Structure formats: C-alpha cells, structure tokens
Amino acid sequence: MELVRGCSWNQLTSATYLQNYIMNAATIAEGRLGNPVETLTVNAYPTPLASPIQIVLRNGGISTVSTNPAIANGDIVRVDLSLTWIAAPGKRTRSQSRNTIIARTAP
Questions:
Q1: Exposed, middle or buried, 101 (CB in 10 Å: 0-12/13-18/19+)?
Q2: What is the dihedral angle through the alpha carbons of 18, 54, 98, 87, rounded to the nearest 10 degrees?
Q3: What is the C-alpha radius of gyration for the chain, rounded to an integer number of angstroms?
Q4: To which H or E segment does residue 12 belong?
Q5: Each residue of 43-65: pLDDT tens digit?
Q6: Among 52, 69, 78, 94, which lies 20 to 30 A Cα-Cα from 44?
C-alpha cells in the first residue's frame, strides 16, 4: 500500500503502470502462504464507476481483470488491496485487506 501512496495521479490511474511497477512481484511473506491471491482495485470515489481498475497477482502471474481510463478524469479514488490464502491446518481460507482514499493534488 505504501508504494501506491507514493504514486503520481497518472501512475495511480494507469492499469499498465500498476501492473508493471506495483504488482510486479510477490512479497517475501507470500512465499509462506498457501495459494496467495493479491488483488488491487482502484475506483472513483465517492461514487464508484461500473468498471474499476483491477489487477490480480496469483501464483506469480499478473493479470489485469479490468481497466477504466475514465477514472483518471476524477479527483478522488478509493484503493483496495486484498490478500487471500489457504491456511493450515484445516485448509481454511483467510483474508486481509487494506483501503485508502487518495485525492488528486492541485496543479
């Protein structure tokens, strides 16, 4: 999440940038988790658009699920970062998520 907070507005609202520079590598902790799936979602705020920017990191592979260039035209976005994994014993699904609201800075 700290990498996201350091992005410029153009970087934050670009699915290509987010995929290539933010979600491009698994964290060290993920190596100890069973089947980790990390999802980054960026959408307009307070009224979300029908299609957000959504990028998923799973098994070392990154995919862009959806993108929406119109998000860059707004002034505020909500960023959601979630991590789900399978925990032993019992093979139970666990999850953790963080979110933040980021505003475009004045020119």
A1: exposed
A2: -110
A3: 14
A4: helix 9-12
A5: 999 999 999 999 999 887 899 99
A6: 94
